[in-house]
Amino acid sequence: MEEYGGPDALRVLDVPEPQPGPGEVRIRVHAVAVNPTDTLLRAGAHAQRLADREPPYVPGMDAAGVIDQLGPDSDGRLAVGQRVVAVVVPTGPRGGTYADKIVVPAASVVPAPEDVAFTAASTLLMNALTARLALDELSLSAGDTLAVIGAAGALGGYVIQLAKADGLRVIADAKPADEKLVRELGADEVVERGDEVAQRIRELVPDGVPGLVDATLQGEKLFGALADGGRMTVFRGWSGGTERDIEVRPVRVSDFATDTARLDRLARQAEEGVLTLRVAEVFPAERAADAHRLLEAGGVRGRPVIDFS
Q1: For residue 299, what are the CA distances in angstroms to 53, 120, 178, 216, 249?
Q2: Which of 108, 157, 213, 217 is 20 to 30 A from residue 234's alpha carbon, by CA?
Q3: Under a CB-based contact definition with an 8 Å cutoff, are residues 173 and 193 in contact?
Q4: How would you list the strands of the sheet with 169-174, edge to edge?
Q5: How many C-alpha atoms does 205 have within 13 Å on its Cβ side?
Q6: CATH 3.40.50.720 occupies which residues in the chain?
């Protein structure tokens, strides 16, 4: 974008070809996933972080493609021609992933899951990393019960699947049309989503659950589902209070964009079928605005993808 605004602020522009420096790689991008962070950046929610930058501003945190150039002092882990996925901080000096060539820190790049199309692979890292961090913040043990709110969405689905891989019991919310999907993702119990979701969880677990992931920004409305001293993870920061010794743990995925070991483990779990990659619809770059409109309309199961191939 050259200025912030609605979906039509997105433009196809010619920009200088980026060159990788030390510790960086260049990726010929084939596909990028569209995430809520992209629409927020487009609308100006991160304008303060970009105040010292000249436009255009490039959204995008997820990319899948092929390495076409290595910066100096490569450590040998990655190679030209390799199929990879990357997670990117779009407010960083190189911008985001909505481009046919991007330069990113090598530490943010891992081999793509084998036998997975670029469109599907592009939906993996940002949301799966967010889900992994959310679960790590809760510090639950195998056999504990986790509640997942917003379970049918891209983030919620990864939370369910990673939680089951960790040996947790999962209670998830869903509207009736999504119940089958949420059960297929691995939820042990499903309650109807809505204003009474905390009460419905309490009916299944009278003392409350020890951990809850809020992918819907409901905040304090969900405290009723938590046990005394329970923990909840949130994704847009936290400025509210708490009660009954409940802890609220905000997750900032951008702080872990160079956590190579975590990223690679997630890619391998996708390769092994632990994680299900869901593409809602694929758009050419010229229709990026339509991809944003689809996401902002809500109810998307999986992620819209922009095709740069």
Answers
A1: 34, 19, 10, 12, 26
A2: 108
A3: yes
A4: 189-192, 169-174, 145-149, 209-214, 226-234, 247-250
A5: 27
A6: 127-254
- Whole-model pTM: value is 0.96
115 φ, ψ to 5°?
60, 30
Q: Given CATH 3.40.50.720, say whether it is the number of domain 127-254.
A: yes
DSSP bridge pairs for 211: 146, 231
- Residues contacting residue 60 through CB under 8 Å, at least 6 positions apart: 32, 38, 88, 90, 96, 97, 98, 99
Residue ranges, CATH 3.90.180.10, the chain = 7-124+277-307
Is there a contact between 61 and 23 (Cβ–Cβ < 8 Å)?
Answer: no
The angle that helices 36-43 and 288-297 make with each other, rounded to 10 degrees, is: 110
Calpha distance 99→82 (Å, rounded) = 18
Q: Are 65 and 24 in contact (CB under 8 A)?
A: no
Q: How many residues does the chain have?
A: 309
Statement: 7-124+277-307 belongs to CATH 3.90.180.10: yes
Q: Digits of tens for pLDDT over the chain (309 positions)?
A: 999 999 999 999 999 999 999 999 999 999 999 999 999 999 999 999 999 999 999 999 999 999 999 999 878 899 999 999 999 999 999 999 999 999 999 999 999 999 999 999 999 999 999 999 999 999 999 999 999 999 999 999 999 999 999 999 999 999 999 999 999 999 999 999 999 999 999 999 999 999 999 999 899 999 999 999 999 999 987 877 888 999 999 999 999 999 999 999 999 999 999 999 999 999 999 999 999 999 999 999 999 999 999
